[in-house]
Amino acid sequence: MGGTGRRKQWRLALSLAAAVVLVAAAAVLWLMRQPAETPAVPRPRGADVQALSPAGDVSGDVEFTWSTGVAAARFRIDIGSGKVTTIYSTETDRSPLPMPAAFRQLAKFGEEYWWTVTALDSARTPIVTSARQPFTLVPPGR
User: Fold this and answer.
1) 84 exposed, middle or buried (CB, 10 Å; 0-12, 13-18, 19+)?
2) pLDDT tens digits for 53-107?
3) How many domains does the chain have?
4) How many angstroms separate the CA atoms of 130 and 133, rounded?
5) Of 100, 106, 119, 133, which one has the fewest beta carbons inside 10 Å?
6) Please, are residues 60 and 135 in contact by the beta-carbon 8 Å criterion?
7) Domain match, 60 and 122 both
8) 135's torsion region: left (phi>0), alpha (psi -120 to 50) or beta?
9) Do 73 and 123 belong together in one domain?
10) Full domain range(s) for residue 66
């Protein structure tokens, strides 16, 4: 191969190397522009909410009761059945909350339900949610 053929090979190799460098530089610049992950804001100790009752088998006049170390404007109570399905939700400004009549009309004796309480700020943004608390409505006298 003559001098001209080698020059063409070198030009091609240099062109490919330059393209690789440009793509790598563009990738680095793109990664540098990505926002850093915002670290989770630690909550002060005791800043949680715990669903207390109802729990287990319950009958009669049931109240939803919880405790919290969070200064919240409101609390959202979600009642569900099964693994994911929320069937009733309401808000209140304090504990306890008497069982809502609308939920009592939906509820069936012997079926297991769960509930959670979520502390909300003044813009109704969730602050913290309790663990699910399971309960089963049983007929009175049982």
Assistant:
1) exposed
2) 999 999 888 899 999 988 899 999 999 998 778 999 999 999 999 999 999 888 9
3) 2
4) 8
5) 106
6) no
7) yes
8) beta
9) yes
10) 49-137
80, two tokens: 């569900």
Whether residue 23 sits in one domain with residue 54: no
44 inside domain? no
- Predicted model pTM: 0.66
For 23-86, what is the HEC assignment? HHHHHHHHHHHCCCCCCCCCCCCCCCEEEEECCEEECCCCEEEEEECCCCCEEEEEEEECCCEE
The three-class DSSP label of residue 96 is: coil
In a domain, 142, yes or no: no
Instruction: State the CB neighbour count (10 A cutoff) for residue 74.
Output: 14
Cα(128)–Cα(59) distance, integer angstroms: 28
Are 61 and 32 found together in one domain?
A: no
